[in-house]
Automatic annotation (TrEMBL):
SMART domains cross-referenced by the UniProt entry: Kelch (SM00612)
Protein name: Uncharacterized protein
Alphabetical keyword list: Kelch repeat, Repeat
Residue span of region Disordered: 113-134
Regions of compositional bias (Polar residues) in chain numbering: 118-134
Family matches, as Pfam families: Kelch_1
SUPFAM superfamilies (alphabetical): Kelch motif (SSF117281)
Natural source organism: Ciona intestinalis
Top-rank lineage group of the source organism: Eukaryota
Length: 134
């Protein structure tokens, strides 16, 4: 089951893909037919991941597979035409609770988090992921 409070939406044309939320499950809402269906599951269970769409494909980065688990470095890509998920190169470092935005290629990811050493200090970082899209 998807935890909809932590899930992400990824729009492609008239369809909205709902994914993440501590699950591998991916649901799709077709705005033209008003129908909900499932597509292929993600390769890895993810929560608090980054999601963006580039070139009609969905890119999912990082997150956590368990609520108390470590951040993930892994990334995957979904091709709606083939209904298939594929692993793509890992990120330079593990991330969760980060945002992803695409402005063509590469994908930029940003995270702001409280430093564990000094709780009142915020740190920011920007990562660039070039997933080798063709």
């Amino acid at each position: 089951m998807i935890d909809y409070t932590c899930a992400h939406a990824a729009p492609i044309n008239s369809k909205i893909f709902l994914l993440g939320g501590g699950s591998k499950i991916v649901k799709i809402y077709d705005t033209e037919t008003d129908q909900v269906s499932r597509v292929s599951d993600m390769l890895e269970k993810r929560d608090n991941c980054g999601v963006t769409v580039v070139g009609g494909k969905i890119f999912v980065t990082g997150g956590v597979s368990e609520s108390s688990g470590p951040s993930l470095m892994t990334s995957e890509c979904y091709c709606p035409l083939r209904n298939k998920w594929e692993r793509i190169p890992e990120m330079p470092r593990p991330l969760h609770r980060h945002g992803s935005v695409s402005m063509r290629i590469p994908i930029y990811q940003r995270t702001d988090r409280v430093s564990p050493r000094t709780p009142r200090t915020m740190t920011s970082s920007e990562e660039v992921t070039s997933p080798g899209i063709t």
